[in-house]
Amino acid sequence: MYISNARPEPRRSALAALLALGLTVGIAGCSASPDADNRTTAAERVGPGGPFKLIDTKGRTVSDQTLKGKPYAIFFGFTRCPDVCPTTMARMAVLHKKLGTQASKMNIVFVSVDPEHDKREDVASFLSMFDAPVIGLTGDPAELKRMEKSFKIYVERVPLPNGDYTIDHTARILLFDRDGQFADTMDAKEPEDQAVNRLSRLINA
């Protein structure tokens, strides 16, 4: 599991610069997750996913049932992330474009793991950087915690010396089929053509 160890700072880079950084920042600042000792319980062997109910950037309720009918790629991050999150979303925008006419047959979902800071307007502003239709979600902190647990997303708030905080979190993209069942994971290191082919197979499955 890759962990993003992002430090909040002003968003200095343009989208083109993020794309130029490409795969090299996909695991920037990563560290091993707490369960990296390879001990696997029965519960951990069950795939990620489960019921949830959050709010999108327009204030509409989105649930696991809402997303059924199309496969989707979902990424958990936060809007003040300076590298891994914007790079991953920029990558997803590129893959969306490469899918061509198939692109409308799947959804891209971004879930904020920082409900204290990220209101729906913040999520909308963050996602406006990327040239792709993304369903941006936030919501009640308790509901987000339940979702993080069921989707097996590692999230840890890390205090900073200046009194602010950053968030360490899983930096993988999770893929789900049209029935809402977990299909696979993907990360920003995957070669573009390979990633496009995998998404295409998911769409046509």
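The above is record 1. Record 2 follows with the same two-line structure.
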Amino acid sequence: MIVQSNDSLIDAAAAVLHPHHVGDRLFGDVASALITDTGSVYVGVCIDTASGTGFCAEHAAIAAMVTAREYKIAKIVAVWQGADGDPVHVVPPCGRCREFIRQIDPANVDTEVVLGRHRTSTLRELLPENDWPVSLD
């Protein structure tokens, strides 16, 4: 079993926070880091675009992981920072990200989601009723 402290994963995500304005849009103000079941660490940032075509930081980190042909996430975190010098905040994955994590590999329902320096939850706990529906027949 891979052990990675919450602080080290938070630090890995915070290291790639580099907010960048393009017109009225902001890229990179949320970052994510994950560690796989093999111990590889992947990071990514959000891209906020018009018309909903952007994606969350978790998606970017997961895309890097899948590009490397890995699929099982042991632990994941997302962080946000307002302006330079503001404190970093851990943010929980949105509903879309929770479902995205689940669909990458069935074992990911047991992914440990970092919710703070000393607080985690499994994806299963954050995404109740995650099994496919049962037929009424």
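The chain has a mean pLDDT of 91.
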